[in-house]
Amino acid sequence: MRCPSCGHDDTRVIDSRAQDTTNAIKRRRECRSCGYRFTTFERCEDPIEVIKSDGSVQPFDRNKLLVGLMRATSKRDIDLSELNALIDDIERELRGGTLTAIRSHDIGDMVLKRLERIDKVAYIRFASVYRDFRDVGEFISELDKLR
Q1: How does residue 57 score in pLDDT terms, banded at 50, 70 and 90?
Q2: Greatest Cα-to-Cα distance within the chain, rounded to the nearest angstrom
Q3: pTM score above 0.70
Q4: Which of the residues 25, 85, 106, 121 has an alpha carbon 20 to 30 A from that of 14?
């Protein structure tokens, strides 16, 4: 790991702690050259490919999903740790299966299933973008499903 202060690549780990909410390991490091201390997070990366609706394939990106969830939950009383837990749950489900590729549509359904339990307004916001509502009728139809 390179030191963000001096760029030297000889660092040592001072402390490691498992992060329950983000499925990662938090490490405090110290540069052996300049003594600068910094934090890193280590996460297991099993390649999961996402098959987009246009047929293109890209790696699963939890940050991209987090940005979409943050937009859907904007100005709602939902903590960032709750969104990370939602994504962790989806990642666990994806990595627990035997598939190495999943359709983006299926990931969207997984998100909606979980968002419905957390916040109905966020559910509708996410669904309106994810399902690409074309008119008010589709919006009302989705609202009726929630009732």
Answers
A1: very high
A2: 63
A3: no
A4: 85
